[in-house]
């Protein structure tokens, strides 16, 4: 009987060892799924501090409107599981003097792990009949053009407006940004209709939602490899 018990214990031990080996092998052969990429987006509300930007026909100042849209955009991007970083979160500038302020913005835009930059502005033009949103990319940047096209398409679709082209430009924010960048002009403060809309919370939220969707569409590669219209 003692011999049988010994054999039984040996069999149980061998079965246990076999189970451990099989479990270890399964862990080696079934790779763990890689964590999803969490995109890091820098939002730059244009102007601020002593630089109020454009002034509307009723006297409203661009800098405050830029910040309002940017704060809503931050919420929208975070709802899409993205990390959103503001270059400024208050009315003030980042540094004394325009040059120092812009250099401080550039350092944030070119920080570690930043995937994309969006700068929020309001437009102004001598002809008060000109209206509507625009999007600019750094001239010569194919990825910037794709981003700007995706964003402006999303905005015009959200607002129920005719689609507009993405425009090349050579502005500091998009020129000095190492990550792909877009500068969004949300509307014209020189146009009374645009100016009234741009001060409305509902319209600001619409713009933010549309910009966020455009950014998401670009990052998901919806236009990757597709010819531009």
Structure description:
By secondary structure, this protein is an alpha/beta fold. Helices cover 47% and strands 15% of the residues. It contains seven helices and six strands, in the order H-E-H-E-H-E-E-H-E-H-E-H-H. It has a six-stranded mixed β-sheet with strand order 2-1-3-6-4-5, with helices on both faces. Helix 2 links the parallel strand 1 and strand 2. Helix 2 packs across helix 7. The longest helix is centred in the N-terminal third of the chain and has 28 residues. The termini are far apart. The C terminus is likely disordered.
Mean pLDDT: 87
Radius of gyration: 26 Å
Low-confidence sequence ranges: 19-35, 222-229
Query: In terms of structural class, how would the helical and strand content be classed?
Result: alpha/beta
Order of helices and strands: HEHEHEEHEHEHH
Count of β-strands:
6
Large-scale geometry: globular
Number of helices: 7
Q: What share of residues are in beta strands? A: 15-25%
Percent of residues in helices: 40-55%
Strand order of the largest sheet: 2-1-3-6-4-5
Distance between the termini: 86 Å
Largest sheet, in brief, is: 6 strands, mixed
């Amino acid at each position: 009987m003692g011999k049988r018990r010994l054999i039984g214990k040996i069999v149980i031990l061998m079965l246990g060892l076999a189970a451990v080996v099989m479990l270890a092998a399964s862990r080696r052969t079934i790779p763990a799924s890689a964590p999803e990429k969490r995109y890091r987006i820098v939002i730059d509300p244009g102007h601020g501090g002593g630089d109020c930007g454009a002034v509307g026909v009723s006297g409203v100042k661009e800098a405050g409107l830029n910040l309002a849209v940017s704060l809503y955009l931050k919420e929208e991007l975070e709802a899409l599981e993205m990390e959103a970083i503001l270059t400024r979160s208050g009315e003030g500038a980042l540094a004394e003097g325009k040059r120092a302020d812009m250099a401080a913005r550039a350092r944030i835009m070119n920080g570690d792990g930043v995937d994309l930059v969006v700068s929020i502005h309001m437009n102004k033009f001598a002809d008060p009949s000109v209206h509507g949103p625009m999007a600019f990319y750094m001239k010569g940047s194919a990825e910037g053009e794709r981003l700007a096209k995706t964003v402006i398409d999303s905005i015009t679709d959200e607002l129920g407006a005719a689609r507009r082209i993405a425009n090349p430009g050579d502005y500091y924010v998009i020129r000095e940004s190492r990550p792909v960048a877009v500068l969004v002009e949300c509307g014209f403060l020189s146009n009374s209709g645009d100016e009234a809309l741009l001060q409305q919370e509902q319209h600001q939220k619409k713009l933010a939602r549309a910009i966020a969707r455009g950014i998401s569409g670009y990052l998901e590669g919806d236009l990757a490899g597709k010819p531009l219209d």
